[in-house]
Design brief:
The complex is a heterodimer of chains A (about 625) and B (about 300). Chain A has helices at about 1-5, 10-35, 65-95, 105-115, 120-130, 135-160, 165-170, 175-210, 225-235, 240-265, 270-275, 350-355, 385-395, 400-405, 410-425, 425-440, 445-450, 460-470, 490-505, 515-525, 550-560, 620-629, and strands spanning about 310-315, 325-335, 340-345, 365-375, 375, 395, 475-480, 510-515, 525-530, 535-540, 610, 615. Chain A has about 625 residues and is α/β, with parallel strands linked by helices. Chain A is elongated. Chain A folds into three domains: about 1-270, MetI-like fold (Orthogonal Bundle); about 310-530, Rossmann fold, CATH 3.40.50.300; about 545-560 and about 570-629, no CATH class. In chain A, helix 4 (about 105-115) packs across helix 6 (about 135-160) and helix 8 packs parallel to helix 9 (about 225-235). Chain A has an eight-stranded mixed β-sheet with strand order 6-7-8-3-9-10-12-11, with helices on both faces. Chain A has a four-stranded antiparallel β-sheet with strand order 2-1-4-5, covered by helices on one side. The relative contact order of chain B is 0.13. By secondary structure, chain B is an all-alpha fold. Helices cover about 80% and strands about 0% of the residues of chain B. Chain B has helices at about 1-20, 25-30, 35-45, 50-65, 80-115, 120-135, 140-155, 165-195, 200-205, 210-230, 230-250, 255-265, 265-295, 295-300, 305-309. Classes of the chains: A alpha/beta (about 625), B mainly alpha (about 300).
C-alpha cells in the first residue's frame, strides 16, 4: 500500500514539503527566536535586502525569521485543532452509528444538519463563546471540523458494523464503547488517516482565517494568519510582507491536502485504475491476421438495394505496440424486409458490429471497411447527409431497456424528437405518430403513457417504447441488440412477437443480435455465427439443424433439450472464449475444437460458400473439396 | 418536521451562547475593571437574574416579535443593525452565487465534452490542476493575491469599500466565487462524464440529434440534479466566504458586523447575526431540496424522501 501511495504523482513532493514544515516547526523557534522577536529600531520597515530577505516590520523584526518561527504555532495549533476534530468526530459519529436502529436516523439527520452550516461561521461562533485568542480559535476550528469527521465515521461504522464479526461481537454482549474502540476503529483506521490529513489542511486554513479576522492568536504571539494581517496593512508599501505568509499558508495546506488525497487514491484503486485504463490495456496482440481473400457472400436474389451492406468491416482499438482487433474482415448483406440473426458468445464482437453499423463505436475504436445503408456508402456522405441518413434510416433497440431511456425526460419528448429533428414534423403530428406507434407495439393506454417518465414503466413496457421510438421515422433497418436478454421469459416472447410484426408489417429489415441460438433460429431467415471477431458460418434457418462449422455444432449441442431426461447433465462447450487481446493464431476456435488439424493452428480459414450459406473451417471445407471432387 | 427541529435547534444554540461562556458572562462583557454596581445592572439588562427557562421564554418571545435585543456597543436594536447590513451581504452573496452558476456549469460541461473517453489529455490535466489549486486556496488568501494583482499591481480595480458600486464588487465576488467554481465545475465534469457513458445517451446519439440537443436536453438535466445536491454546500461556502471577504475588502455587511461584534464581546449582535445566517442556510437548503424534487422526477416517487423533510 505504501508503495502505491508513493507512486501517485506529486506525493513525494508533498511529503518532502511536510517534512520541511515539521523540521522548521521544531528548529526555527530555537534558532531564530531573537531575530523574530527582538526589536531593532535602526532597521524598521525595510524592504527586502541581503540582510533581511523579506524585509523587516515596523518594529525592525526580520519578517523571514518571523515567518519561519510562526510555523510552530500555526502548525501546532492546526494539529491540536485536528486532534479535537478527530476525537469529537469519532465520538459523535461512532456514537450515532451505534445508537439503537430506531433513533439512529434522527442522529444521522442531526449530523447532516450540522454539516450544512458553514464551518468557518461555526468556528467563529464557538470562538466567540470561548473568547478571541489562540485557545478560542483552536477549539472553534476543532469543533467546526468535527462534524465532517463525524459524518464520515458514522457512515464507515455503519457499513462495517453490519459485517459478521461485529455482529458476532454484539451477540456476545460486548458493550458499545468497547465495540467502537476494539473492533471497529482498527478497521476504519486507514480512512481516518485520510480524514485527518485533510483535516489538518483545513485547520491550517481556518486558523489562519481566524487570526486574519482578529479572532485567533493575539499579539505578542504570532502565527501566519497574524503575519498576514500585519502584512495586509502595509500592502501598498511592502506587498511581500503579506504575500509571503499567504504563500506559506497555501503551500502547507496544499501539501497536507495532497498527501491526504494521494492516500485516498491508493486506498480506492478501482476508481484510479478505471480512470487510467482508458489509456489502453497492456496486453499485446497475438493474432497476425494474414490477409485473406475478400469474403463476398452472394446477395440474396432481390433486385432492390439491400437495406444494409457491410463489406470488409474491421474494428480496432489503437494500442501499443499493435492495435487490438475486435472485429476482423466482416461482410454481409441484409435485404429489405429480411430478418437476419447474428449469434455468438459474449466477446465474439457481435455488439461491436452493431455499433459499427449505427456508427456508435466507443472512442477510441476505429472502423475500416464499407457500410452501405439503403445503398448509400456512409463514408461518402457529408456530416449533414450522414446524420440525416442514420437518423431516419437506422434505429437501434438496446439490451437494457431500464437504462436506455433518459430518466429525466418524459416519454413524449424522447419519442418525438427524432421525427422533429430529421423530418421537420410538427410536435402535434409527431405526437400522433408516437401514439400510433405505441399502440402498434401493444403498449397499454398508449396516450396516457406519453406524459410519463421512464421509471414509471416496467422493463417490458420500456422495451416496447424503445421499439415504438425505432418505428418513428420508418427506418429501413432496425438493429436489435439482445433486445430480450434483460427481460423475463414471458415478456421475451411478447417482445419477439412485436419485432416480427414490425418486420412483416413495415417490411423493415431487422438485425437481431443474440447469444441465444434457439431464439435466433426461431425468428430469423438467415443466421450469422460469430466467433472471436469473425464470421465463422452463415446459414439459412433450414440449414441450422445441420451446421458445418464445429463451433455452430457445439452451440447447437449446448442447447438444453426438453425432450431429454432432466437427469442428463447440460452440455457446455469446453474451454473459454479467447481474450480479446490474446486471440489464438490460425482459426481462433482451434484450442476448443475437437476436429482441429495442424493447419488450423497457423492459417485463418477463409469463409467459403457452401450449401447456400458459407463456412470458415479448414476441416469442413476440405470435406467439401472431396465432395465436389 | 426536521425543518422545525433545525430552526428550534438554531434558536437554542444561539440562546445558549451567552450561557456557555466560561466563567462569568457578565464579567466577560463588562470587563475586569467594571464596578459591582455596573455588573448588577448588566446582569439585569441581560436578563440573567431570571431562571433559565424563563430566560429562554423571553428570548423566543422576543424573536417572534423580531426583537433581537440591543447592541452593547451603541444601544441600538440588533434587528436594526442587521437590516442595515444584510442588504449588501445578500447582494455580494447573490452576485457570487450567480457567478458560480454561470461559470461552473458550462465550464464543467464543456471540459467533460472535450475530455470524454480520454480525449484531450492535456486539457484534462490543466483543468484538474487548476481546479484543485483554486479549490483548495482559501478565499481570503485568494482575495489577498487578487487584490495585489488587480488593485495594487495593475491598479484597475478598487481594493476596498463600496464605490464605485459595480467595479468594487468584482474583486470580492470573484474571491468568493473562485473556490466554489472550482469545486462545482469538477463535480459537473465528473457527473457529465458519467452521464455521457449512460445507455440513454447512446440512444440519443443513435437518433443523430444535433450536439446542442444532446447536451442541453439529454445531458444537462441529469447533471443538474447531481450538481444541485451540492447546492447547499456551495451556498454555505459562499456565505462563509462573504463573511470573511467583507472583512478583507472592508465592506460593511453582516460579516464585518459579526467580526466587529466578536472582537467587542457584543453578544446580542453575535447572537442575532449567527441566527440570521443560520436561517439563511436553512432556507437555501429547503429551496435546494424543492428544486431537486422538481428537476428529478424519480425523487418524488422515492419512498421516504417526502417524509424526511
Amino acid at each position: 500500500m505504501i508503495r502505491a501511495i508513493l507512486k501517485a504523482p506529486g506525493t513525494i513532493f508533498a511529503l518532502i514539503v511536510i517534512a520541511v514544515l515539521v523540521g522548521t516547526m521544531i528548529v526555527a523557534p530555537i534558532v531564530l527566536n531573537k531575530d523574530a522577536t527582538g526589536l531593532n529600531f535602526s532597521a524598521t520597515s525595510e524592504g527586502p535586502n541581503a540582510m533581511h530577505w523579506l524585509g523587516t516590520d515596523a518594529l525592525g523584526r526580520d519578517l523571514l525569521a518571523r515567518l519561519l518561527v510562526a510555523t510552530r504555532l500555526s502548525l501546532g495549533l492546526a494539529f491540536l485543532a485536528t486532534l479535537i476534530s478527530a476525537v469529537l468526530g469519532l465520538l459523535l459519529g461512532g456514537g450515532v452509528a451505534l445508537l439503537p436502529a430506531r433513533i439512529r436516523p434522527i442522529g444521522l439527520r442531526f449530523i447532516d444538519t450540522l454539516i450544512a452550516f458553514p464551518a468557518l461561521i461555526v468556528a467563529i461562533f464557538v470562538g466567540a463563546i470561548i473568547g478571541a485568542g489562540g485557545k478560542g480559535a483552536t477549539i472553534g476550528v476543532g469543533v467546526a471540523g468535527s462534524f465532517y469527521i463525524a459524518r464520515v465515521m458514522s457512515a464507515l461504522v455503519l457499513s462495517s458494523a453490519s459485517r459478521d464479526y461485529i455482529l458476532a461481537a454484539r451477540i456476545l454482549g460486548v458493550r458499545r464503547m468497547r465495540l467502537l474502540l476494539r473492533n471497529i476503529l482498527p478497521n476504519v483506521a486507514d480512512v481516518l488517516v485520510i480524514v485527518v490529513a485533510l483535516g489538518i489542511a483545513n485547520s491550517i486554513v481556518f486558523l489562519a482565517a481566524m487570526s486574519f479576522l482578529g479572532l485567533g492568536v493575539q499579539s505578542p504571539q504570532f502565527d501566519w494568519g497574524q503575519l498576514l494581517t500585519e502584512g495586509v496593512q502595509q500592502f501598498y508599501q511592502a506587498p511581500l510582507s503579506a504575500l509571503a505568509p499567504a504563500i506559506a499558508i497555501a503551500i502547507s495546506a496544499l501539501a497536507f491536502g495532497f498527501a491526504g488525497e494521494a492516500v485516498a487514491k491508493s486506498l480506492n484503486p478501482q476508481l484510479w485504475t478505471a480512470m487510467r485504463s482508458i489509456k489502453g490495456p497492456g496486453a499485446m496482440l497475438g493474432t497476425r491476421a494474414s490477409k485473406i481473400l475478400s469474403q463476398r457472400i452472394p446477395t440474396p436474389s432481390d433486385e432492390k438495394e439491400p437495406a444494409l451492406e457491410v463489406s470488409n468491416l474491421s474494428v480496432q482499438i489503437p494500442n501499443k505496440p499493435s492495435p487490438i482487433d475486435i472485429v476482423t474482415d466482416i461482410s454481409f448483406v441484409v435485404a429489405q424486409g429480411e430478418m437476419l440473426g447474428v449469434v455468438g458468445e459474449s466477446g465474439s464482437g457481435k455488439t461491436t458490429v452493431a455499433n459499427a453499423i449505427s456508427q456508435l463505436l466507443p472512442y477510441p475504436a476505429k472502423m475500416n471497411g464499407t457500410v452501405k445503408i439503403s445503398g448509400r456508402d456512409i463514408s461518402t456522405l457529408t456530416k449533414d447527409e450522414f446524420n440525416q441518413l442514420l437518423g431516419t434510416n437506422v434505429a437501434t433497440v438496446f439490451q437494457d431497456p431500464m437504462s436506455s431511456l433518459n430518466p429525466a425526460l418524459r416519454l413524449d419528448i424522447q419519442l418525438t424528437e427524432r421525427a422533429e429533428v430529421h423530418q421537420h414534423i410538427g410536435r402535434r403530428q409527431a405526437r400522433e405518430m408516437a401514439i400510433a406507434n405505441l399502440k402498434e407495439v401493444n403498449l397499454p393506454a398508449a396516450e396516457g403513457q406519453m406524459r410519463r417518465y421512464p421509471h414509471e414503466l416496467s422493463g417490458g413496457m420500456r422495451q416496447r417504447v424503445m421499439m415504438a421510438m425505432g418505428l418513428m421515422t420508418r427506418p429501413a433497418l432496425l438493429i436489435a441488440d439482445e433486445p430480450t436478454t434483460a427481460l423475463d421469459v414471458t415478456i421475451q416472447a411478447q417482445i419477439m412477437d412485436v419485432l416480427k410484426e414490425i418486420n412483416q408489417q413495415h417490411k423493415m429489415a431487422i438485425v437481431l443480435i443474440s447469444h441465444n441460438l434457439d431464439l435466433v433460429g426461431q425468428n430469423c431467415d438467415r443466421i450469422l455465427v460469430m466467433y472471436a471477431g469473425r464470421i465463422v458460418e452463415e446459414l439459412s434457418r433450414e440449414a441450422l439443424s445441420q451446421p458445418l462449422h464445429p463451433y455452430t455444432q457445439a452451440l447447437l449441442g449446448a442447447l438444453p433439450d426438453i425432450s431429454e431426461s432432466p437427469d442428463q447433465p447440460l452440455v457446455s462447450i469446453g474451454g473459454q472464449v479467447p481474450d480479446i487481446s490474446n486471440r489464438p493464431s490460425g482459426c481462433a476456435f482451434h484450442p476448443r475444437c475437437p476436429m482441429a488439424v495442424e493447419r488450423c493452428t497457423t492459417e485463418v480459414p477463409p469463409l467459403l460458400p457452401r450449401r447456400g450459406g458459407a463456412v470458415a473451417c479448414w476441416v469442413a471445407n476440405k470435406d467439401a473439396d472431396n465432395e465436389s471432387a | 418536521m426536521a425543518l422545525v427541529a433545525t430552526v428550534l435547534g438554531l434558536v437554542v444554540v444561539t440562546f445558549s451562547m451567552v450561557r456557555l461562556i466560561p466563567g462569568n458572562p457578565v464579567l466577560a462583557v463588562a470587563g475586569l475593571t467594571s464596578t459591582r454596581a455596573e455588573r448588577i445592572a448588566l446582569t439585569k439588562e441581560m436578563g440573567l437574574n431570571h431562571p433559565y427557562f424563563v430566560q429562554f421564554g423571553h428570548y423566543v418571545n422576543n424573536l417572534l416579535h423580531w426583537n433581537l435585543g440591543t447592541s452593547f456597543a451603541d444601544g441600538q436594536p440588533v434587528s436594526q443593525q442587521i437590516s442595515q447590513e444584510i442588504g449588501s451581504s445578500l447582494v455580494l452573496a447573490g452576485v457570487s452565487l450567480a457567478l458560480v452558476l454561470i461559470v461552473a456549469i458550462p465550464l464543467g460541461l464543456v471540459v467533460a465534452a472535450l475530455t470524454q473517453e480520454g480525449r484531450h489529455p492535456r486539457i484534462d490535466m490543466i483543468f484538474t490542476g487548476a481546479t484543485s489549486l483554486f479549490g483548495s486556496i482559501p478565499q481570503f488568501l485568494l482575495a489577498t493575491f487578487l487584490a495585489f494583482i488587480f488593485a495594487i499591481w495593475l491598479k484597475i480595480l478598487p481594493v476596498a469599500g463600496f464605490s464605485p458600486p459595480v467595479s468594487s464588487i468584482i474583486l470580492p465576488a470573484v474571491s468568493i466565487a473562485l473556490a466554489p467554481v472550482a469545486i462545482l465545475s469538477r463535480l459537473v465534469r465528473i457527473e457529465t462524464l458519467n452521464v455521457l457513458t449512460q445507455d440513454y445517451i447512446r440512444t440519443a446519439r443513435g437518433k443523430r440529434l444535433p450536439t446542442r440537443i444532446i447536451y442541453l436536453r439529454h445531458v444537462l438535466p441529469n447533471v443538474l440534479t447531481a450538481a444541485l445536491t451540492l447546492g447547499g454546500v456551495i451556498f454555505a461556502y459562499i456565505i462563509a466566504g462573504a463573511v470573511i471577504i467583507e472583512n478583507v475588502f472592508n465592506r460593511p455587511g453582516l460579516g464585518t458586523g459579526l467580526i466587529g461584534a466578536v472582537q467587542q464581546n457584543n453578544y446580542p449582535v453575535i447572537q442575532g447575526i449567527i441566527l440570521v445566517l443560520g436561517l439563511i442556510v436553512v432556507a437555501v437548503n429547503v429551496v435546494v431540496d424543492l428544486a431537486v424534487g422538481f428537476l428529478d422526477p424519480r425523487s418524488l416517487n422515492r419512498p421516504n424522501s417526502g417524509a424526511a423533510r
